[in-house]
Amino acid sequence: MRRPAPAPRFLAGPRSLRRAAALLATAATAAAVLVVGAPAAPVGAASVLPSLPAPNAAGLTLRSWSVAAEQSERMGDASVTTAAVFAAHGAAPSIDPVQVPVRVRVLLPEDYQRDPAHPYPVLYLLHGGSGDVEQWSKTDEGNVTANLKDSAFKGIVVMPEGGKAGWYSDWPGHTDGFFAPQWETFHVEQLVPWIDANFNTVRAASGRAVAGVSMGGYGALRYAGRHPELFSAVGAFSPGTDIYDPGAQSIIADSTWQVGASILWTGLFDGKFRVTGDTPYRLATVFGRPDTWPGQNPVNLALDGKYASYGGKMALYAGGTGGTGEKEIGAMAEALHQDLKERAVPHRYCRGAGDHSWPYWGPELKDFVAYAYGPAPQAPAPCPNGWGPQSS
Question: Is residue 44 scored above 50 in pLDDT?
Fold first, then answer.
């Protein structure tokens, strides 16, 4: 078991689970407004996107592929169904998996259609807790199109749904409605090969990176550590790093009751998507027995040498210095940084006075792609957000 650490208040993700409580308090109004759905894409815009040669592959069935609403014509939404996300567990599930589509948002590079034979690198960008597939592309949140414009990354960005409290895990337990989200299976075993089958990608670890924010930062570190054969670069912005910590456990357990296995608005107000029971039971539902956690826990994965292959393409960012902002996250990031140093894994580590919010994460994304994909600088580049020099 890992050493005790200060209780982090980060794992619930952007705006934390306080927003979920507000959503639940206004359920009737929210549901009435949002069931209408997103605005339709401009007429003819869908023709800008390429056709998909293997729409039904790797366990995914394509329902629709169109320009994402209120986004540039280079950003498409793929709506897919998969048995993984609503896998039956414990009894007959209360939901039919093939009836619930899961979205994946894809941003194509500007020259994608002009050079269809050119293979592009892929950045898998994971959202935070209580967030959704749209989080990284919203102009007041991730604003990925603007943040990557003229950046060192000239590839495809894949922004998959991960559930409001999915934790990027294959749940060993089940919700109160007897289904078990299998997010790691969906992302790693289904989505990665599906993307390679439908887009012009570099189909090797050297062409893939994974990054994420908050809960998605945990997901990025989890996937990178457990699947080094798939990725060659990893970026973590205010990430979760230690699921043994009591404060982290409290947030994880609360999230499984407050928003559970909901996806966007699907299941948000449905008890079948929640997990009731005490904290140990809820944690075991998401991660299994505590003796299995070292293989899922970034600080343990670091000590076990699982990030060795990412030397020079691993970046970690957190605020909280000076005793303000996300100080608990900063302490957790520091522990992971020290673990990486113990294993001599070169990495970019940036900390400063900052809190858990998007004005910090956009600059961190730009900094990460410059570090992972740009030319090697003569001297260490300054950290983003006006923070001090990086250390590794």
Answer: no
